[in-house]
Amino acid sequence: MTARKSLLKVILLGDGGVGKSSIMNRYVTNKFDAHLFHTIGVEFLNKTLEVDGNQVTLQIWDTAGQERFRSLRTPFYRGSDCCLLTFSVDDNQSFLNLSNWKKEFIYYADVKEPENFPFVVLGNKVDVTERQVSSEEARLWCQENGDYPYFETSAKDATNVAVAFEEAVHRALAADDKADHLIPTDTVKLHRKPRSATACCS
Amino acid sequence: MAELLKVIFEHDGIFLHPSPDEGSLDEDLLVSGFIRILEKDSEILVEYRPLEDSVDPSNILCAGQDSSSVVEWAQCPGEKSQSRQLLETQQSYETEWDMVNAVSFRKKNYTNGEGSLNHSHERSRWAFSVNISDLRSITVKDEGWAFLILQLKDSSSSLPALHFHQGGSREFLDSLRRFALLTECPEDETCLLVSTPNKALSQSFENLLDDNSFGLVHKFKRDPYVTTLGSFSKVTNYIYDALRGTEEQQQRPPEEVADLLGEVIPGLEINQQEEPGFEVITRIDLGVRPPVRRAEPLYADEWSKLQDPEGRIEDEVTLRQRIFKGGLCHAVRKEAWKFLLGYYPWTSTLEERKSLQKAKTDEYFRMKLQWKSISEEQERRNSRLRDYRSLIEKDVNRTDRTNRFYEGLNNPGLTLLHDILMTYCMYDFDLGYVQGMSDLLSPILYVMENEVDAFWCFVSFMDQMHQNFEEQMQGMKTQLIQLSTLLRLLDLAFWNYLESQESGYLYFCFRWLLIRFKRELSFQDVLRLWEVMWTGLPCQNFHLLVCCAILDSEKQKIMEENYGFNEILKHINELSMKLDIKEILQKAEGIYLQIRSCKDLPHSISTILGFDTERRVSNQTDPGSAPRPVPQQDVCSNGHCRENRPQNSCRGVFTS
Ligand SMILES: Nc1nc2c(ncn2[C@@H]2O[C@H](COP(=O)(O)OP(=O)(O)O)[C@@H](O)[C@H]2O)c(=O)[nH]1
Ligand SMILES: [Mg+2]
Question: Quick one: which of A59, B204, B305, B638 has the most CB atoms within 10 Å?
Fold first, then answer.
């Protein structure tokens, strides 16, 4: 009855310039393009991978971070199965803004139980030598905010990028399984509301 | 328990003018407040709420008192503080991260209007809330401002007239049209009859299509009209998708995303309705698209011949037309763009241009010095400037870096890009820097190869694009609505398809419109497209026809492959750098000619394309030849005339 999802929507959020687009490209095409444009609007890429013998398609969404574009960005949060909160270890402000990104996501994604929603935190650009955020600080934040897994990544030299996405997939699937146990299908039928729509578990 | 309500529309500056017989003791009393359209479950409510300090305690709301649908807002004392608290929590959240557009409050239903009269909560005397299914009609009147009279179905009395002193009545009605049919009353054209959808119909769909038709049911709840062709195709598509059991079924449906976007771009749905009679579908029959040929670009020797001995451009009209048909060869761009963008007036002499440039150089460096001379310590106390600078630094490093002019580290092109953008912040601090602006500047700087000229040309271009970047992004919303209107009337079948995939508001064209195809075309092709667009020919908003041309080439694929919401977005995003500028311009011009020769053009199209504001010059009628443009552009040598120009400053005007 609880056939697993085969399409997962994952969204990258964080300040402009922390490397969201680079991380996505690294993961999907295994390339780092130093000439990449800054993102305008909303984009996504698909990547297929195998989890426990099953094919899973990851749909990775990337957006523009500037405040001005918020209203046209936030609708795309809906239906996310996992959120990758991203900062850059050489930019303290981007780290401080994590909690705002988390808040914005929870608010607009309309998640059922924010406290159980799978977030994964990425501290990107670890290849850079001048750090402004230490691993300890970052880990502490993750611990205090809901025990999120934390990865120090580099889109540039590919450090930890794949691992982070795989963790995101596992978390998303685990959350999905748990939700299936919590909500018997009957209930779904009775209260057919947008928010309980991890829809048909056929 | 507090109920979560969704605010669909909100507008303040709405006044009541209570007359003495309505309980006002003071004849001059005006009640100021705001109006909202709210969604609660699947009910749509219209609420009026006065601002607290404007209300005289002696006032009593009489109107609508016997309607069961009138509820009071601020309720009894105990509850009141509680509801207040909820509101305040929300508000502090809002100011902190400014993300709240939903409000929680408690409401109480009065089955008997007497109840509300006997209460002593004066502030809410004037407040009312009506379910739109209880509305019989809305009468629209004008007294220099618009005022609306809402008439209830089961009551002979009406609610107090709502005076929209600060505008917004049209937007209010447009929002309302998303949930109800407003049709002109045959006997009285100021009166709009309100009819709401048949609940039984959507209910039966809910039963008909079981579980995995979730998307359909959800959509019907929000938008239960099946009267338009668009909606019919929507229905069939949902059924189709439900049966097909696509992969997307596993996800929350993308239409949730779409619905939210629809709210961000309000007014879209109604703007597609040509006539007030909502369900009328206007379709124009376009003739065959005439073949269009592009010309050779304008060469340097041709350009120099166009000036009189003092350096005035002699025949601007022909020149514009020439540029529209062929573009410019690169050698001419540096000079010609200054005219096209309005930095140089066409009629200026060489001498005048020299002194203009001198004055502009001084002005530029004065502004540049302003940010250059800010100390680090000062900047620490100026968060806006700091934010602009940080964004500019990041984006300059991510703009056209494969172009020779901007490639590598420490390229002087990068410094110039940075400095001009910083100076623009000083020129227009309110707007500052918004992402996308570096894309607009880069080609201009590349062509000008001069900091000052590039700056002022950029200022002129920004005058045209300003609204795209403003806080509310009104320019983007307007363009999306206009494009949707055009597409709907030019290609109803395709538009219906998009609509059936929740993509009728054309969100996927966002990047095209924000930065005028800068990311879609190769750098050289961007130069060509922009100079063609800057001629203002053949009509206002030609770039929207360019959009239509591109979509026309893609529609077959999109429909054949049955692309859904996400796939359409992805497909359009991935067209980037695969488009052929010549083909697009030919097609766009062809579409223009088709529309131009169309007999009964809907008014909305004429307005969008500026046909209705053309000044016809009778003595130049020249049957059989292409329309002849007549300059209408204001002399605008300095880029300062945004305020007195229409958004599309280089508007062409021609005889037909
Ligand atoms: N050194 C280093 N630079 C990176 C890394 N990831 C991204 N960048 C650079 O950081 C800048 C911003 O990256 P981008 O992906 O556009 O950030 P986004 O705005 O979050 O999408 C670009 O110049 C990238 O080349 C990384 O892991 N290491
Ligand atoms: Mg990006």
Answer: A59
The pair of structure tokens assigned to B142 is 């004008």
Beta bridge partner(s), residue A45? A60
Report the chain A residue with the minimal C-alpha distance to residue B218: A194
Q: What percent of chain B has pLDDT over 70?
A: 67
CB of B471 within 8 Å of any CB in chain A? yes
**Nearest partner of A118 among A96, A102, A107, judged by Cα:** A102
Chosen from A42, A77, A91, A189 to mutate, greatest number of chain B CBs within 10 A: A42
Nearest CA in chain A to B515: A40
DSSP code per residue over B117-161: HH---GGGGG-EEEEGGGEEEEEEEESSSEEEEEEETT-SSBPPP
Residues of A in contact with B252 (CB under 8 A): 78-79, 194, 197-199
CA distance to partner chain B, nearest, from residue A133 (Å) = 18
Is A19's C-beta closer than 6 angstroms to any atom of ligand 1?
A: yes
**Over 70: is that where the pLDDT of B228 sits?**
no
A50: DSSP letter: E
Q: Give SS3 for B470.
A: coil
pLDDT at B448: 96
Residue corresponding to tokens 């009104």: B474
| Residue with token string 């914005």 | A104
Kindly state the tokens that stand for B448.
């000008």
Q: Between A5, A16, A78, which is nearest B394 by CB?
A: A16
A31 closest CA partner among A44, A40, A18, A22? A22
ipTM of the complex: 0.87
Q: For the whole model, what pTM was predicted?
A: 0.68
**B30-48 per-position pLDDT tens digit:** 788 888 888 877 788 888 8
Residue B245: DSSP 8-state: T
* Ligand 1 atom, smallest distance to A153 CA: 27
Q: Is the pLDDT of residue B6 over 90?
A: no
Do the Cβ atoms of A38 and B473 come within 8 Å? no
With a 6 Å cutoff on the Cβ, whether A160 touches ligand 1 is no
Kindly determine whether residue A189 and residue B211, on different chains, have CB atoms separated by under 8 Å.
Answer: yes
Nearest CA in chain A to B572: A43
Say if CB B320 and CB B653 are below 8 A apart: no
CA of A19 to the centre of ligand 1 (A): 4
Greatest alpha-carbon pair distance for chain A in Å reads 56
DSSP assignment, residue A37? Answer: P
Q: Which phi and psi (to 5°) does residue B574 adopt?
A: -85, 0
Q: Residue type for A126, please?
A: V
Residue B342 to residues B314, B337, B462, B470: CA-CA distances in angstroms? 16, 8, 12, 22
pLDDT level of residue B174 (50, 70, 90 thresholds):
confident
Residues in chain B within 8 Å Cβ distance of A16 = 391, 394-395, 435
Please give the pLDDT value at position B284. Answer: 63
Show which of residues 259-288 on chain B sit within 8 Å of chain A, judged by CB atoms: 260-261, 264
Exposed, middle or buried by CB within 10 Å (0-12, 13-18, 19+), for B153?
A: middle
Residue A124 Cβ contacting ligand 1 at under 6 Å: yes
CA B511 to ligand 2 center in whole angstroms: 13
How large a percentage of chain B has pLDDT more than 90? 44
Q: How many whole angstroms separate alpha carbon A5 and alpha carbon A12?
A: 20
Helix (H) or strand (E) holding A150: strand A150-152
The span from the CA of B289 to the CA of B594, in Å, is 6
- B217, B250, B253: residue with CB nearest A6: B250
Question: Cα(A168)–Cα(A83) distance, rounded to whole angstroms?
Answer: 8
How far, in Å, CA of A77 to CA of B256, rounded? 10
Tens of pLDDT, residues B370-394: 999 999 999 999 999 999 999 999 9
Q: What is the length of chain A?
A: 202
Give the Cα-Cα-Cα angle B486, B487, B490 (nearest 5 degrees): 85
